[in-house]
Amino acid sequence: MTTCAASVTKRRLLLGVTGGIAAYKAAELARLLTQAGMDVQSVMTQSACQFVGPITFQSLTGNSVYTDLWEANAINNMAHINLSRNVDAILVAPASADFMAKLAHGMADDLLTTLCLARDCPLMLAPAMNRQMWENPATQRNLSILRQDGVNIIGPASGEQACGEVGMGRMLEACELMEAVQAFFQGGILQGQTVLVTAGPTFEAIDAVRGITNSSSGKMGYAIAQAAVEAGAQVILVSGPTCLTPPAVDKFIRVVSAVDMLNAVQAEIAHTDIFISVAAVADYRVANISQQKLKKSDQNLSLELIPNQDILMTVSNLPTPPFCVGFAAETEHLEKNAEAKRRKKKLPLLVANWAQDAIGSDESELILLDDTGRHFLPKASKTEQARHLIKHISVLINPK
């Protein structure tokens, strides 16, 4: 069972709930936040009320629930003004595609959209929708507009959805949202930092249609990029080939080969404060790539492989390197091999995990190795582990 920290106190949060099956998670979130000492005021759209009743949120928070723009009990009949003035922040969870579209284009046709438009406090959105709705170009344009307007986007995650499909768009779990709210109220633990993350595999061509690659879904790297965004950093994500939808980073660079990734990193590293090398970069590439498809024959095929330049070591050996974080996926002698890698590459922090347990999974078990020793992170979602890692990095770069 995941344990949620309860360090959010003396804060007032307006929890907006829009229509979607993920509304049931918002009820659990309301409970967790209230238990942590936060004053939670709920506002629900009419669609949300079709999934979860207002009395549920009233019972969990101890506060009346607002659902109507024309609330008769509102002071001066201005609930959309009063509600947003009495809170420290607004979190809409779930935030549907329709709600995001309205907000991106300044539309206000109900209480929740109106108070978000009239707010003078920070706004966070936790998107939740079918994967195709999330990947739709219109939704991605709206997402970009909202982020440019200073809205904090939390999630979504990739996984099984209520419709039976699997992909990006699933709202984060209540405990994960709780942690995101905590990080937000900490003031952005990486505010002012530029973070460069590499993720996914690389693909080294053999001929026009074949190649060599590593087993990597990219999930951990994408989760770390998202966690860094949530922590207030400017984030650059350099990704090898994956099927994932990129999080709302400041710059996304898609690459294929290890040489491509090295070139992208070198182009960005001069203005990077933190470099997190998560990508599973191929150690070798083919010396002579055939421009045409190699025809099958009964004879053995020999390929000459030459080593790729080590991207992480290249960065860590710069005269003034950024804070470098490496990853080591091992199949044996985990801590011994990982610590040897950390020392060889002169890394202040290395994340170790068992390769056979982590590749392609939505969960992982990690060991953080730094100059003070080992820090064990028990098995949890990669989203949660990414937030733990970002918090650990913030402590190392800003020791108290």
What brief labels describe this structure?
single chain; alpha/beta; Rossmann fold; 2 domains; 5-stranded parallel beta sheet; 14 helices
Structure description:
- The protein has 2 domains: 12-185, Flavin prenyltransferase-like (Rossmann fold, 3-Layer(aba) Sandwich); 194-288 and 303-397, CoaB-like (Rossmann fold).
- With 400 residues, the protein is α/β, with parallel strands linked by helices.
- Strands 12-11-8-13-16-17-18-19 form an 8-stranded mixed beta sheet, with helices on both faces.
- Helix content is 33%, strand content 24%.
- Strand 6 and strand 7 form a beta hairpin.
- The chain is built from 14 helices and 19 strands.
- The longest helix is centred in the C-terminal third of the chain and has 16 residues, at 382-397.
- It has helices at residues 23-35, 54-61, 79-85, 97-104, 111-117, 131-135, 137-148, 174-185, 219-230, 258-268, 311-316, 334-344, 355-358, 382-397, and strands at residues 12-17, 39-44, 89-95, 123-127, 152-153, 157-160, 166-170, 194-199, 203-205, 211-213, 234-239, 251-254, 274-277, 284-286, 305-307, 323-330, 349-354, 363-370, 373-381.
- Helix 9 (219-230) packs across helix 14.
CATH arch. level architecture of the largest domain? 3-Layer(aba) Sandwich
- C-alpha geometry: globular
Radius of gyration over all CA atoms, rounded: 23 Å
CATH class of the largest domain: Alpha Beta
Low-confidence stretches: 1-9
What CATH calls the topology of the largest domain is: Rossmann fold
Estimate percent helicity. Answer: 25-40%
What percentage of amino acids are in beta strands? Answer: 15-25%
Count of distinct structural domains = 2
Mean pLDDT: 87
Structural class: alpha/beta
